[in-house]
Design a protein that fits this description.
- The structure is a homotetramer of 346-residue chains.
- Chain A is an alpha/beta fold.
- In chain A, 29% of the residues lie in helices and 21% in strands.
- Chain A is built from 11 helices and 13 strands.
- In chain A, the strands form 2 sheets. In chain A, strands 8-9-7-10-13-12-11 form a 7-stranded mixed beta sheet. In chain A, strands 2-1-3-4-6-5 form a 6-stranded parallel beta sheet, sandwiched between helices.
């Protein structure tokens, strides 16, 4: 019982916020004390979202995004599930109130405020906080996350792209200038909003790419790949929208610089003890069906001997390991409980 | 009325055969005189496939695949919608009976019987016929198709990959050694067969690649790309299965060797008069939704200036331009009627 | 060529309007001379809707809904694909300009302006026109449609419910007070609009009823059933939204008053020559898959001897026989051409 | 820890078995000691079903269905997820070995072996066991289940139909002879098997009814409704297959015999303390989206004053409350632990 942490969720009406809510309501070590939503303020969670009816704490009432009220609720950690630009000011206020922040927006993912301005078309709202923010990839920054005041939880595409590539770039097994990535994402990744291109008849029986050629997520992807390669890395990235509710499948092409046989060892040596990275093996094509609703990232790899390319495949739930699940992983690290608490589901 | 050609369809119970049947039943210049299916022999078309009920000729009865009966029906052109290996012997017999053949299998697509053996794991059944077979890409081989006795109608993935690349390789605008292709296909491409991995709950809410790293279609893709480049071309190709019934979306990465601005001209000069290739333009991401049920191939292209790569996008219906529609395009050419007869639908 | 009629479509940006556009662009006896859309005015059809690119007339430019411009274009028949309440004033103006009207809204479906007010929560905009409007069910009102100035094309649910029941009520084979109807509809039936409950993640993997207990379509359903029964008929009707783009499946329960064996004859004697009603037979459960994209209505029927109920099943495309296709059927009758012109597709 | 029960699952390769496996692997009070599957024998769970990889006990190896091996594993309760006819002999053997049985097949659901023979077209394999079997609806037979040696877990459709009707029939608020039911089910309900009508292109964009007019589930439905009404009840039931993976939506029509206002009280007085029945209220149409993956059954009800009918709506996951979840509810009762253990998820 001493392991029960009081938490708040700011912005719990989008798909990421709802997935956070779902995990938190069932988390053995979290007690939800405040939940905000402008559009649903003064309504009970289970009246707005009948899926949660009869779950513990589901009768909590949404409040306006008032950070003092959050502090008054006793919350010591707050999740921000808000658009970029909106999150930073709340984060700043929460920190001043002594509340640690796990931000699921892009506001604290980039080390450099100029890169933020370039990719997000606006000045960074709180550049003074960037130094203390930790990029929330638990497999890579476990120690930093444990003691962080602000965790910038990574984007969905970046998680699926970065994790398989980091060990290979660190070990110099692929040519960093040869990386091309094709990803397919479920529609929940586009957000929970009334939008004509997102209605069922427009998306169903359809596949299309979007956001070309400079998707915003490239900024954090290239930042982390460059760190791993210890040199500046630029990649090509094409995201596609496919008719599934959730799930990301990422296919990465890269030219091998070493022996293909070293790939397995490189991946295994970094991830063999990671509870949520599942190395499915050489010659395996992972399926999003096996990861939806979970916090797992599955990885398979293939050799194309005819072109001497490596073909990497990774799958995750864009709302799980790509967003809410990963944020809970950080929460578990920050509170010192079991790394898998609340997340070992299928 | 002198433009009415009697045709037969051999193997009309798979998805390709059914799409052929659909187009032929409504084609103003074709009269279906024979249709074969072992499993449906002696049953009427519209009893087996209620979708066709009340269409002209839909009360025709399926027969066993008997080539003499086809000849006796008066058919002068036969479509073969059969598995590879099965098609060639029928083709041979039909030719001897004086019937021209449009084969939708892979049996006559490769110039070289050895490549066939390598990719299809069996000796070619009729290598002596390869010389007279024409690869049925009407945009490229129009003249050859007009007079062909055997047309080898291209595969679905190859059509979506080859057509956008041919002008660019001919004009030496991209590096032939740098081509990586990621395609997404609807499930009808896997065939109409009872198969556990294809049942709805396995495919729905799922994305997965398959056939890595050496999909059979690579053989015809590389054959045609090598002709266009006038040098041997090897590519990486990753097909993915997505939960749509039909449609292929192909994303191709290639390093630019010339100016990006020349790409549009190259595509336009080859395809400006093609009735079924729609150049959607620079910066456009075509959507399979706009081509399903049609014979169109849509192409968009993007410059990734950060990596100096070209990103090509193409969409088609795997059963339409990728199979049955394209076969009808060849039929139109072979019979000297309007190139768009029976195919200008949306 | 004397059979070519100039037509206009008013409101061609919703799903019904788009399906009308699709059929008209390919119709051998129609020439589209004007097409209106407030939101797309001054843009070409194929720029807004790339699916239609390279079809004849697809480069026509959308205009504002200006009835005089429509008259100036030479159109002699206009289709109205507009919301109820909006259609009637345009219809009135078109009639005064000498243009016959096929209205796909609910504005002219009801004989009684009071019933309209009761079900549509507004006064009827043009009650003086109700007398001359013909309910556009070609199987029932063929003669009236041929000479009509205004055809009120029926709703999607009503078509699927009314057609199977009319002969049975006329022949007094079922108890008119015992009718309960459960229908399932594709999402295109809800319209092409940005609406949160219609976005893919909300509709996918979901089934739900809506509009209970007094759906607006009940007004025209009960009007036509009462005429058939020659007495006032009231029914229960539950529509459900299911994750398909188009298609309606209607299941109707009714207590038999006569022998079940008479059902077939009753249906056959009314519909045996109807080109678009396909009586699939006793014990058959029709599938929407066989009618999507077409103008067919398929009917099957079952006896439940344990309760002595009749179970009727009917399927159609809500945009086809349930809307645009049926409107074209009326167009064919009004212009005296083949009843199946432009509609015999699969 | 004294609350940890050793359990076995017999037949864990169908969708019901897999859902059981999913819940059991994460259940705080169950330890899986044996799992059988003929087709997967000698393989590890997580090699066959990668979704479960890295979950506790997921490295257990499938064995042949050997009841002695199950006993040797220490299991004291066994779940049977097998076809009807196959389950009974195993149940008999397990009981003799002192293992309590929760059977998810139809073998023990009917009190009367003759009714079984009539609906399942075969003699009952173990009629001598019928007396001791308890119908596993925890909301109705809680006490009996607690002490049962054999629990016959109800079918998916029956659960959704019976639960809303039982209080209303007990309280004589509806006419038992007037009940008609239209249900829509996801495809997982048809089983995990290679079957042409179940492959994605056949099911997607399709709705169809099936199993008319005498679906096997009618036998248990009418048995339980008759008990509630204290008279013989016969109903009409039409199941439909819709393109979702899981979820059942049931719409029930019945003539009211009392005041509509009494319906709410009747439902509330029976279910107000049931943890998994969620009375959503009058005028509410529940959505399967809110129950998939859970053990909840949601109920809404509507008055149709024009016909004086009651329209009941209920939703559940066919694999959850309709199968595996409900079986776990019985398990919780049989072992005396919290009724919601392992099941309070969203």
């Amino acid at each position: 019982m001493e392991d029960l942490t009081k938490v708040a969720i700011v912005g719990a009406s989008g798909y990421t916020g709802l997935e956070l809510l779902r995990i938190v309501l069932c988390h053995p070590n979290a007690e939800l004390t405040a939940v905000t939503s402008r559009s649903n303020a003064d309504q009970k969670i289970d009246d707005v979202f009948p899926r949660f009816k009869k779950l513990p704490s589901s009768e909590l009432t949404f409040i306006e995004p008032d950070m003092r009220a959050i502090a008054a609720s006793g919350a010591t950690i707050a999740f921000l599930a808000l658009p970029h630009g909106t999150a930073a000011p709340f984060a700043s206020e929460l920190l001043q109130l002594g509340i640690r922040v796990i931000d699921l927006s892009a506001d604290f993912r980039l080390d450099d405020a100029n890169t933020y301005a370039e990719f997000y078309d606006q000045q960074h709202p709180s550049p003074e906080l960037l130094d203390q923010a930790v990029y929330g990839l638990p497999e890579i920054y476990q120690n930093e996350i444990q003691s962080a005041q602000i965790v910038a939880s990574p984007g969905c595409y970046p998680t699926s792209i970065i994790l398989p590539l980091i060990p290979l770039l660190r070990d110099k097994l692929i040519d960093p200038s040869s990386i091309s990535v094709s990803s397919m994402s479920g529609v929940s990744g586009a957000g929970r909003k009334a939008s004509l291109p997102l209605i069922f008849p427009e998306v169903n029986e359809s596949v299309r790419s979007y956001g070309l050629p400079r998707h915003r997520h490239l900024s954090e992807i290239e930042q982390e790949l460059s760190k791993a390669a210890n040199q500046s890395v630029t990649i090509s990235f094409v995201p596609h929208l496919i008719p599934v509710t959730s799930g990301i499948c990422t296919t990465t092409f890269a030219n091998l610089t070493g022996e293909f046989s070293t790939i397995s060892n490189s991946l295994r040596s970094l991830y063999k003890n990671s509870p949520f990275v599942r190395l499915r093996g050489e010659g395996i094509s992972p399926d999003t069906k096996h990861v939806t609703g979970t916090n797992f990232l599955d990885i398979g790899w293939h050799h194309d001997p005819r072109t001497n390319r490596l073909i990497l495949q990774s799958t995750e739930d864009n709302l799980g390991k790509g967003a809410a699940g990963q944020a809970i992983q950080s929460f578990n690290l920050m509170t010192g409980i079991s790394p898998t608490a609340g997340l070992l589901t299928a």
